[in-house]
Amino acid sequence: MELGGKFKMSKTHYDCSGYATKADMRCSDGRTIRKNAFEECDGKRVPLVWNHEHNNPDAVLGHAILENRPDGVYAYLSFNDTDAGQNCKTLVQHGDIDRLSIWANKLKQVGGDVIHGVIREVSLVLAGANPGAIIDSVMAHGESSDEEAFIRSGEFIVIDDMTHSDKEKEEKEKGDIKVEENNKKQPTSSNEKTIKEIFDDMTEEQKAVVYALIGNALEEAGVKPDEKKKEVKHADSDEGDDAADEDETVADVYETLTDKQKKVVQFLIGQALADAGVSDEADEEEDQEVEHSYEEGENNMKHNIFDSETNVQDQETLSHSDMEEIVKDARRLGSMKEAFLAHGITDIGFMFPDAKVVDGTPGFIKRDDTWVQEVMKTVHKTPFARVKSIFADLTEDDARAKGYIKGNQKAEEVFKMLKRETTPTTIYKKQKLDRDDALDITELDVIAWLKQEMRFMLDEEMARAILVGDGRNSSSNDKINEQNIRPIWTDDDVYTVKYAINITKGTTSDEKAKAFVRGCKKSRKDYKGSGNPVMFMPEDLLTDCLLLEDNNGRVIYDTMEKLATALRVSKIIPVPVMENLSRVKGADTHYLGGLYVNLNDYNVGADKGGEVTMFDDFDIDFNAMKYLMETRASGAMIKPYAAVAIEFVGKTAEMTEAA
């Protein structure tokens, strides 16, 4: 014995051993026992107790000598000569009890990590304990003012050969398998009997149970077994004794296995999971989700398939004969669901689950909205809706400065004043939802989803009106007044330059694309807007431009950046709503090829209170929830010649025939 209550461990005078706790194991409450947390307990002798009974001296079974290791605290157990001690020793040797637990106090934590503690006792616990570490925190008093805990490592006890009688040694030499502390090493025996030999000794019924257990373990791990599981009859609580004798349950057959065979089954299941790619980390993570009910009295927990006690639950079961009757009734009733209900299966949701939305909320089938964001983000905004623009035209010859000849009369300078005023209009989006539908739809926030749709469509309509107009007939009650939101494409020639490219019905796509690139370059001299403009164009024409090849068959513009440089714009934005847009002027039809503009030269104004506003109301008469999203704004170019529209122009009569 050493000073300080520590003992030198004799490897020849203990009855059994095992890990009292494992290091770096995450517990279900989120805490992790770190390496060397119980380092000061190395060599310490503590009581060996039954199930943490601290108020009963008869529950003291012996003592344990602790050994601190890199992967946890290992305990060497020695039973006393009391009836309880010898009884538990027999239970351990027989394999009826194979788990350890500790009680520790003076726990110190850093965040979720337990970095220090003192082990006060080691307990034998039932096999049904959680295979992962569980800390059941309790209040402590006096010296135990720091937090204390019961910690179950879930490790197996290793029975030492040197401490058993000669008779016990002979029994072990007959083939008992020693299960190591991690329970994952391949079982061996002193007489070199292999796993295959042990498995071959099983009956066909026992082998069928093994296959079923392996398949069940793979399914719970999310792995689809390669082979179909053999049929195994499960318990039907209503069947008589005769049926029970004829159709044994999985638990009944499993209990017929010897301890050696049970350990082989455990090894085979672990090997199957490892071969299927289920990692130890995944196993530990799954174990950590299990909520142990030993201390807290919880009703539900994941269970060990080898623990017959925890498998007994008041749950409905189906035998194969029941299924045959249900199938027969389904043919008669015309519904499997009705057949199950007729046989008393009330939790039908597990067999016939409702369909679920994959992404949580319904998606939208919509056009690409990149251009909408670009328009709404880059237009110039003012906090007033009535906008007036005044310009003096100094390009006419009469506005030029003149020379003076002596004796002649000086003439006044003459130039035109250009003035226009733009007033606001209202753009709105209205929706109605029956209140019953709003209450019945529980899988998503239907109101928030509806508002999202309204805002998107309002922004798209506003952006469309700014670039090319809403496209509705002028007689439509829903048309956005083009005197209030002035489209850039059809705006006055003072603000939007129209560059025409003549085409015929025989003009090819390549010819149009080449002419478009050429037209953009040549029209650039007419652009008087701010900075470098952005090109808005339809996707089809953009694709035709990118497919242009030189005389050697090489693509001229292999990226949009190169094409943008050739068009003399900062970037190109495809606009889906610009496809096949046209306007008729005189005898000609003008097809929009694209327009480039710096939207900072386009002003969108809204008075206070005229910004985007959401209203909702309830219609009592029709039990409907109504929603209105609207804005009152004006929009117009505020700088002359700040936009250029490239148009393909053809004779209307000819183009109509071609169509």
Automatic annotation (TrEMBL):
Keywords assigned by UniProt, alphabetized: Hydrolase, Protease, Viral release from host cell
Domain annotation Prohead serine protease: ranges: 15-102
Biased composition (Basic and acidic residues): 162-184, 224-237
Domain of life the protein comes from: Bacteria
UniProt KW Protease keyword: yes
InterPro entries referenced in this protein's UniProt entry, alphabetically: Peptidase_S78_dom
Any one Gene Ontology molecular-function term assigned to this protein's record: peptidase activity
Composition bias, Acidic residues: 238-248, 278-289
Biological process according to GO: proteolysis
Segments of this protein annotated with the region Disordered: 162-193, 224-248, 276-298
Protease in keyword set: yes
Official protein name in the record: Phage major capsid protein
